[in-house]
Amino acid sequence: MNSVFNRLLILALVLVTLPLARSQDVRIAVDHASRLAPYFEIRIPPGSGPFPAMIMVTGCSGFHSERFARSYDRDGDLFVELGYAVARADFVRAHGLENSCSSDENVTGEIVPNTEIAKYIFATVAHMVARSDVDSDRVYLIGWSLGGTGIIVAMTNNELLTGRNIAGVLNYFPGCDDVTPWTAEVPMLLMLAELDNIKRPQYCRELVQNSPKKGLIKVIEYSDSHHCFTAEDTAVVTEPRSKPTCAYNPEAHRASWRDIVEYLDTH
Predict the structure, then answer these.
(1) Which residue from 200, 149, 205, 202 is spatially nearest to 179, judged by alpha carbons?
(2) Class for the domain spanning 2-266
(3) Is the backbone of residue 105 left (phi > 0), alpha (psi -120 to 50) or beta?
(4) Residue 88's beta-bridge partner residues?
(5) N or C: more exposed end of the chain, with fewer CB within 10 A?
(6) What long-range pairs does 14-23 form, CB within 8 A, spacing at least 24?
(7) pLDDT tens digits for 14-35?
(8) Does this model's pTM top 0.90?
(9) What is the pLDDT of residues 174-183, one digit of tens each?
(10) Distance between CA 15 and CA 17 in Å, rounded?
(11) CB 68 within 8 A of CB 59
């Protein structure tokens, strides 16, 4: 089944990238699509399409980490209930890893580069816009942490997504200290954690301030919240910590979802 799906996915990617007239783009799409194919997951809401699409880009622990799997599953469920076709860009497993974090959990020590994450995002977008049940003018990206950083790189540091119809970006606590300012003609909701000592919010505030397209970025910083404040299977922590902390904040999580729904209603 995977081999058949793989061939169909590659064919769709070649067809959708041909209008770009860049053989390099086609090669990237095919190469990264073939790596994604065994892990590709898509869910279509009930009813008749075409549907808007939401592409989920995991954090460094991947979609299937014990601490985060339930949160990703729940978010996917909520987007389907809102009427979105949901796809996962699982760059961690596609890159042959179980973990891409700079922590002791990563036994190999290998981290997927941001430029590679951008290519996996491109491959997933190319597949989604080629589908007849997806509204190609309403494809959205949502990323967490490292995945959110990859989205920023995909939209600003290369031309891979030029011509792709990205309607908007939802971005939870990305790393903004090693990326260039936002130059994409795409709106972004940037959701930061006030107490984040893993991906410090001040770097994202500086990125926005220095971005030529800062008028397209809405920044919300959630008080008393740490990195991973959406991960319900982590401990609840709402006070500052000196060591790197990944912790849940139910109030911030609920507030962020209200903000997401409101944002999508207007974008």
Answers:
(1) 149
(2) alpha beta
(3) alpha
(4) 41, 56
(5) N
(6) 15/130, 16/126, 16/127, 16/129, 16/130, 17/126, 19/163, 20/162, 20/163
(7) 444 434 434 454 455 577 888 8
(8) no
(9) 999 988 888 8
(10) 6
(11) yes
